Amino acid sequence: MPALVLLGAQWGDEGKGKATDLLGGSVDYVVRYQGGNNAGHTVVVGDQKYALHLLPSGILSPGCTPVIGNGVVVDPAVLLSELSGLNERGVDTSKLVISGNAHLITPYNITVDKVTERFLGKRKIGTTGRGIGPTYADKINRTGIRVQDLFDESILHQKVEAALDFKNQVLAKLYNHRAVVAEQVVEEMLGYADQIRGYVADTTLLLNNAIDDGKVVLFEGGQGTLLDVDHGTYPFVTSSNPTAGGACTGAGVGPTKISRVIGILKAYTTRVGAGPFPTELFDADGEALRTIGGERGVTTGRDRRCGWFDAVIARYATRVNGLTDFFLTKLDVLTGWEQIPVCVAYEIDGKRVEELPYSQTDFHHAKPIYETLPGWSEDITKAKTFAELPKNAQAYVKALEEMSGAPISAIGVGPGRDETIQINSFLD
Ligand code: GDP
Ligand code: IMO
Ligand code: MG
């Protein structure tokens, strides 16, 4: 079992941080392969709560080496402040390894993110404003700045100037924004170089050697399947590939090396930012899910939009990721509902549709078709085995499993590490 991918099966915030942390004690490496500090992963260890944005959740497991892969976009200021925040709380971060090929989020990428959203007005994506999209745009445009550029002042200078030549025209002429001074950007970036240098290595070599040596490597996705730039609800997506294939490109590991793909699946659905969401609730049930589930963004503090479980999405996640397992989270949040509706298919223009429509227009018109399952009222947070769950909770899990296309191998019944029912091991 050398390499596993763990990713979000919905629109993010499914509980990837908790799931990664849970496995952290048994794996040798935890690798972020895409995204950046748009992520917000909450990990609860005993009475301590950690909010991680850029660092892999494995950083909290002492035996584990955390890796930031080439597919990640790194804001150096955020990186250093997250590291020092953990150090102050006694977490050893010295094992961190960062790819020299990862791209850097520069101050002007953050500026462009913010002014673009403002310019879009009511058509905005609702980004996290962290410069994610513009940094990936620079990468694809071949005008990006990489971590390794920090260590060659002359190259850094040339690249920042080249990027700003064009961007300053756009900022000034289109957005009526003052020009960014290349010299200041270079100076700020160079200020980070010495603090980051010691972490940088050839991470593809490191990870491939580790896998060949039989070490266990866990690739931790940020965001989720429906936020994937290729497979998500485009254009209301992030600018990278959280889906399983992203682990290969974002870490330089071939698909033949990956043996397991675990989809983290919330027992209901949430979304932050704009875009279609067929099962979204605007009533007291939606408010109750938000309150009981604590559905407030870890990164931006925005309220999350909430709705019932959507099996069409779960099936889609199984398909595009080749999921071998699900980790169902937050089952405890549903305790107390007499009846729990679950979306089993959509009605689109009068027709029943079982699979996620590829057409954006159809998806915007999709109305959920619900089946209602009986709820339970018993406290489930202390349950350690599937058999200890109330019969109706067991039936809810079994129904979701049948609809979603992959076995549910673990169930979250609370935010803590130990508030988990493990049904099948992820590490066989
Ligand atoms: P991530 O971005 O996928 O890591 O998820 P977030 O951390 O943004 O949001 C998930 C939230 O749910 C966090 O506050 C977790 O502590 C919490 N959480 C995770 N699993 C469970 C669970 O099984 N039950 C409950 N009640 N909370 C959970
Ligand atoms: P984790 O890893 C939920 C959403 C933003 C916005 C869209 C694009 O905690 O699950 P971006 O800043 O990435 O360009 O914003 O994606 N988004 C997330 N939503 N969880 C996340 O991360 C997210 N990261 C980005 O709200 O709609
Ligand atoms: Mg999150």
Automatic annotation (TrEMBL):
<feature type="binding site" description="in other chain">
    <location>
        <begin position="38"/>
        <end position="41"/>
    </location>
    <ligand>
        <name>IMP</name>
    </ligand>
</feature>
<keyword id="KW-0547">Nucleotide-binding</keyword>
<comment type="similarity">
    <text>Belongs to the adenylosuccinate synthetase family.</text>
</comment>
<feature type="binding site">
    <location>
        <position position="13"/>
    </location>
    <ligand>
        <name>Mg(2+)</name>
    </ligand>
</feature>
<dbReference type="InterPro" id="IPR027417">
    <property type="entry name" value="P-loop_NTPase"/>
</dbReference>
<keyword id="KW-0342">GTP-binding</keyword>
<dbReference type="InterPro" id="IPR042110">
    <property type="entry name" value="Adenylosuccinate_synth_dom2"/>
</dbReference>
<feature type="binding site" description="in other chain">
    <location>
        <begin position="13"/>
        <end position="16"/>
    </location>
    <ligand>
        <name>IMP</name>
    </ligand>
</feature>
<dbReference type="GO" id="GO:0046040">
    <property type="term" value="P:IMP metabolic process"/>
</dbReference>
<feature type="binding site">
    <location>
        <position position="304"/>
    </location>
    <ligand>
        <name>GTP</name>
    </ligand>
</feature>
<feature type="binding site" description="in other chain">
    <location>
        <position position="223"/>
    </location>
    <ligand>
        <name>IMP</name>
    </ligand>
</feature>
<comment type="pathway">
    <text>Purine metabolism; AMP biosynthesis via de novo pathway; AMP from IMP: step 1/2.</text>
</comment>
<feature type="binding site" description="in other chain">
    <location>
        <position position="238"/>
    </location>
    <ligand>
        <name>IMP</name>
    </ligand>
</feature>
<dbReference type="GO" id="GO:0004019">
    <property type="term" value="F:adenylosuccinate synthase activity"/>
</dbReference>
<feature type="binding site">
    <location>
        <position position="142"/>
    </location>
    <ligand>
        <name>IMP</name>
    </ligand>
</feature>
<keyword id="KW-0479">Metal-binding</keyword>
<keyword id="KW-0460">Magnesium</keyword>
<dbReference type="InterPro" id="IPR042109">
    <property type="entry name" value="Adenylosuccinate_synth_dom1"/>
</dbReference>
<comment type="subunit">
    <text>Homodimer.</text>
</comment>
<keyword id="KW-0963">Cytoplasm</keyword>
<dbReference type="InterPro" id="IPR042111">
    <property type="entry name" value="Adenylosuccinate_synth_dom3"/>
</dbReference>
<dbReference type="GO" id="GO:0005737">
    <property type="term" value="C:cytoplasm"/>
</dbReference>
<protein>
    <recommendedName>
        <fullName>Adenylosuccinate synthetase</fullName>
        <ecNumber>6.3.4.4</ecNumber>
    </recommendedName>
</protein>
<dbReference type="GO" id="GO:0044208">
    <property type="term" value="P:'de novo' AMP biosynthetic process"/>
</dbReference>
<feature type="binding site" description="in other chain">
    <location>
        <position position="302"/>
    </location>
    <ligand>
        <name>IMP</name>
    </ligand>
</feature>
<dbReference type="InterPro" id="IPR018220">
    <property type="entry name" value="Adenylosuccin_syn_GTP-bd"/>
</dbReference>
<feature type="binding site">
    <location>
        <begin position="330"/>
        <end position="332"/>
    </location>
    <ligand>
        <name>GTP</name>
    </ligand>
</feature>
<comment type="function">
    <text>Plays an important role in the de novo pathway of purine nucleotide biosynthesis. Catalyzes the first committed step in the biosynthesis of AMP from IMP.</text>
</comment>
<dbReference type="GO" id="GO:0005525">
    <property type="term" value="F:GTP binding"/>
</dbReference>
<dbReference type="GO" id="GO:0000287">
    <property type="term" value="F:magnesium ion binding"/>
</dbReference>
<feature type="binding site" description="in other chain">
    <location>
        <position position="128"/>
    </location>
    <ligand>
        <name>IMP</name>
    </ligand>
</feature>
<keyword id="KW-0436">Ligase</keyword>
<feature type="binding site">
    <location>
        <position position="40"/>
    </location>
    <ligand>
        <name>Mg(2+)</name>
    </ligand>
</feature>
<feature type="active site" description="Proton acceptor">
    <location>
        <position position="13"/>
    </location>
</feature>
<feature type="active site" description="Proton donor">
    <location>
        <position position="41"/>
    </location>
</feature>
<dbReference type="Pfam" id="PF00709">
    <property type="entry name" value="Adenylsucc_synt"/>
</dbReference>
<feature type="binding site">
    <location>
        <begin position="12"/>
        <end position="18"/>
    </location>
    <ligand>
        <name>GTP</name>
    </ligand>
</feature>
<feature type="binding site">
    <location>
        <begin position="40"/>
        <end position="42"/>
    </location>
    <ligand>
        <name>GTP</name>
    </ligand>
</feature>
<feature type="binding site">
    <location>
        <begin position="412"/>
        <end position="414"/>
    </location>
    <ligand>
        <name>GTP</name>
    </ligand>
</feature>
<dbReference type="InterPro" id="IPR001114">
    <property type="entry name" value="Adenylosuccinate_synthetase"/>
</dbReference>
<keyword id="KW-0658">Purine biosynthesis</keyword>
<dbReference type="InterPro" id="IPR033128">
    <property type="entry name" value="Adenylosuccin_syn_Lys_AS"/>
</dbReference>
